[in-house]
Amino acid sequence: MSLSSALLEAAVDQLATLPGIGRRTAMRLALDLLRREPQEVARFSEAIRRMREDVRFCEVCCNISDEPRCAICRDPNRDQATICVVEDIRDVIAIENTRQYKGRYHVLGGVISPMDGIGPDDLNTRQLMERIQDGIVREVILALGTTLEGDTTGFYLNRKVHERGVAVTMLARGISVGGELSMTDELTLGRSIADRKPYEQGMKR
Amino acid sequence: MSLSSALLEAAVDQLATLPGIGRRTAMRLALDLLRREPQEVARFSEAIRRMREDVRFCEVCCNISDEPRCAICRDPNRDQATICVVEDIRDVIAIENTRQYKGRYHVLGGVISPMDGIGPDDLNTRQLMERIQDGIVREVILALGTTLEGDTTGFYLNRKVHERGVAVTMLARGISVGGELSMTDELTLGRSIADRKPYEQGMKR
């Protein structure tokens, strides 16, 4: 694909570096931006630059924050004894949306993936270990994805946290609420049978 | 979705204005950008801003260009008697990639779409009418999409160009080269039967 404009080509090249965006889609995005007012595109471009330049990570939980300490860590009403460990900020948002959790978080910034050369030291694991040594934290909830990498990360963190005398829990696995049995994959269904609970307890909300 | 960072939120809002990018995808893109070096994101942001600010449209054919006149219009070896009318620059690229066309182009910048409030005057039709009055242009090829809007635009332009005594042609419609008959839609197949050609002529390349 040779373009009549080096400027357009440069923008398409950059857009195509985004995950899941091929050159064809990048071209569609660039043409859409070209149709807008220059000030509008300047605002677009500036919002992205500023985000990367000025965003900080919470010094306690590594969540994204505009201040040294994020809103959740600053909130005195959140339970300090419980830390929910997640892969990234999207998981924080997902769990916050349930309104079921009143503890704090720890954002790893990824999962252990030997294939991609990502080890524990590339994640925010050191900060987590420091946090649980304050004598206040009683429970670490591992809220990681059910992938091979999520499991590897959970296995590693469970050992490390357990060594320091703090309880480790993980999210329940089973059939989805509102899900149909026949649509549930075998692994999940098998697990939900093995982990079955007394009826009264299982129906509790 | 409430985020812990107004800066992140602003970037996600902007990314979500792109066509086909919802807030969930925008968040994924923003997190990817956040993981990069600040200088890398600054280059990303700058390429987009500069494209919109400095890109020009060729004063002859309205194609995207870094100079007042695009490379195709400047090329003395391109046939000046033939203008291929397309919707946007992606079509120019697609046709150039065939290496079958040696004439020039005219980029409309869209198609007539009453539903979206886009009429002939919102497109580069005036420039096309001016171009064909130079006495050099002998043929206008309408290379528009086979949608309702493409057909409406073709119908309009055919009349206008014809009025000025210039021949109008359109792309052949029929079964794809390498396509299977059973996979071809009814309209296309029906059209390819109605427009059948003598065998020798149809096999010519």
Based on the model shown, name its key terms.
homodimer, 205 residues, alpha/beta, Helicase, Ruva Protein, domain 3, Dna Topoisomerase Vi A Subunit, Chain: A, domain 2, 2 domains, four-stranded parallel beta sheet, two-stranded antiparallel ribbon, 9 helices, 6 strands, globular
Describe this structure in a few short sentences.
Chain A is α/β, with parallel strands linked by helices and 205 residues long. Chain A contains 9 helices and 6 strands, in the order αααββαβαβαβαβαα.
Structure description:
The structure is a homodimer of 205-residue chains. By secondary structure, chain A is α/β, with parallel strands linked by helices. The first copy, chain A, has two domains: 6-54, Orthogonal Bundle (Helicase, Ruva Protein, domain 3); 77-204, 3-Layer(aba) Sandwich (Dna Topoisomerase Vi A Subunit, Chain: A, domain 2), CATH 3.40.1360.10. The first copy, chain A, contains nine helices and six strands; from the N terminus they run αααββαβαβαβαβαα. The first copy, chain A, has helices spanning 6-15, 23-34, 38-54, 71-74, 89-98, 125-131, 148-163, 186-194, 199-203; strands at 56-57, 64-65, 82-86, 104-107, 139-142, 167-170. In chain A, strand 5 (139-142), helix 7 and strand 6 (167-170) form a beta-alpha-beta unit. In chain A, helix 1 crosses helix 2. The longest helix of chain A is centred in the first third of the chain and has 17 residues, at 38-54. Chains A and B meet through helix 1, helix 2, helix 3, strand 2 and helix 5 of A and helix 1, helix 2, helix 3, strand 2 and helix 5 of B.
